[in-house]
Write a structure and sequence with these properties.
Blueprint: H1 7-16, E1 21-25, E2 29-30, H2 70-73, H3 76-84, E3 87-90, E4 97-102, H4 105-114, E5 119-122, E6 127-132, E7 138-142, E8 145-148, E9 154-155, E10 165-166, H5 169-174, H6 205-220, H7 226-241, H8 249-261, H9 266-280
Parallel strand pairs: 6-10
Antiparallel strand pairs: 1-2, 1-3, 3-9, 4-6, 4-8, 5-6, 7-8
Length: 282
């Protein structure tokens, strides 16, 4: 597969080898959900643990849309997306793989001393180290280090070099949070609410305040699956208020503070907010 191959040609070649693929649009992000699937209207699960029960022919549900079916990849609905695609992504977990995404030179230097050698793919700023075996995906396990496997996608940047090694315990251990005697104070972070600019159809600020309060309560009351709960709460708020223009940075900061109080990092919050917007096509 050469660098001059079209995204669809590359995708079909990867799919033939058993790697589930999907197109990425400008910004190197998945295509947003269609109107039928926006706001989870199709019944697909908000936390994206599975692609079902939705069977939408569009390129919906981000990583969960990844497929190895050539008929789907070359279908009329997907062809329109491939024509707008800027690159190809794949679902590492769906192929039984884990990608350690090293974002800078310091992260690469750490990996060379801490992790076993494996297949390596150069990226714009660093390297992807690919291991045989799947695990849960976790961002920011170390400075400049993300783990992409299940429920995630990675850009396809070429076959890479080196012999692929089995997923080591050293990588699995990165996903285990060490207990802390005290949680740090929530980190201040500015994320534009990106209001739609239209008049709020809800008319009363009390409706929005109740929605934010319910989302905060949902996050605060979670006893497990914190990341999925945070994502679901963000998705619920955006599905109601993401297009009407009533969300402000203050509202977003309240949601982020609640998530960070449950142990989420600022980067996790930003990623969950961005993924929720992408899912809703915002």
């Amino acid at each position: 597969m050469s660098e001059t191959s079209s995204p669809l040609h590359t995708a079909l070649s990867l799919a033939a080898s058993g790697v589930p693929v999907l197109p990425l649009r400008r910004g190197k992000v998945p295509f947003g959900n269609c109107r039928s699937c926006a706001a989870n209207a199709c019944g697909g699960r908000p936390n994206m643990k599975t692609a079902g029960p939705c069977r939408c022919p569009e390129v919906c549900h981000a990583w969960a849309a990844a497929t190895t079916d050539p008929a789907v990849l070359a279908s009329l609905k997907w062809t329109a997306a491939w024509q707008r695609a800027v690159t190809v992504a794949y679902h590492p977990g769906g192929a039984g793989l884990t990608v350690v995404d090293l974002d800078n030179a310091d992260a690469i230097a750490w990996a060379r001393t801490a992790l076993p050698a494996t297949r390596t793919v150069p990226t714009t700023r660093g390297e992807h180290w690919i291991y045989r075996g799947a695990m849960r995906s976790v961002n920011a396990v170390r400075p400049g280090v993300d783990i992409k496997s299940t429920m995630s996608y990675a850009r396809y940047l070429g076959p890479g070099t080196g012999v692929m090694a089995d997923l080591p315990d050293a990588v699995r251990a990165l996903a285990v949070k060490e207990p802390s005697p005290a949680r740090p104070a929530p980190q201040a972070v500015t994320v534009p609410a990106r209001p739609g600019g239209g008049e709020c159809p809800h008319r009363t600020p009390a409706y929005l305040e109740r929605g934010i309060a319910m989302a905060v309560q949902r996050i605060t009351g979670a006893r497990s699956a914190i990341h999925a709960t945070v994502y679901g709460a963000f998705l619920a708020v955006l599905s109601k208020h993401g297009r009407c223009g009533c969300l402000t940075d203050t509202h977003v900061a309240r949601l982020f503070a609640a998530a960070q109080a449950k142990g989420e990092t600022a980067r996790h919050c930003v990623d969950a907010w961005t993924n929720a917007r992408t899912t809703l096509g915002l």
